[in-house]
Amino acid sequence: MNEAFTWAFLGSAAGISAATVVMTQIVKRFIPKVDPKWIALAISFVISMAAQAATGDGQATSYALALFNAVLTAGAAIGAYEGILGPLAHVGNTKNKDGGDSHGGN
């Protein structure tokens, strides 16, 4: 396998979620005033529709199902980021709310 993403992988919930996490982290830097959760939903929707167009049968019901899958996979991507990657983004940052470090000194 030479590609990181294939249409078959992007057609799966795991593929859409993984691509959504990666793309949201990139896109949110360009539009910082928009909540990243909305960005994730939009990206998940676009990926879901593109994967459906590339691998599906072209029926309207398939696209409706892709919309529901986008909501599900956006939620999974948000949960994965907040549960796994979000806490890692703060590793090494020892400042607390008071401006002092977490070791008791300033």
Please outline what is shown here.
It contains four helices and no strands. With 106 residues, it is mainly alpha-helical.
Can you offer a commentary on this structure?
It is a single chain. By secondary structure, the chain is mainly α. The chain has one domain. The protein is 65% helix and 0% strand. It contains four helices and no strands. Helix 2 crosses helix 3 and helix 2 crosses helix 4. The longest helix has 30 residues, at 60-89. The radius of gyration is 18 Å and the shape is elongated. Mean pLDDT is 80; it is low at 102-106.
| CA-CA gap between termini | 52 Å
Hey, roughly how much beta strand do the residues contain? under 5%
Structural class: mainly alpha
Radius of gyration (Å) = 18 Å
For the largest beta-sheet, the strand count, sense and barrel status come to: none
Order of helices and strands: HHHH
Low-confidence stretches: 102-106
Shape: elongated
Number of helices: 4
Q: Taking all residues together, what is the mean pLDDT?
A: 80
Number of strands: 0
| Percent helix range | 55-70%
Number of domains: 1
Q: What's the structural blueprint in terms of helices and strands?
A:
Blueprint: H1 7-10, H2 13-27, H3 36-55, H4 60-89
Helix pairs in contact: 2-3, 2-4, 3-4
List keywords for this structure.
single chain; 106 residues; mainly alpha; 65% helix; elongated; disordered C terminus
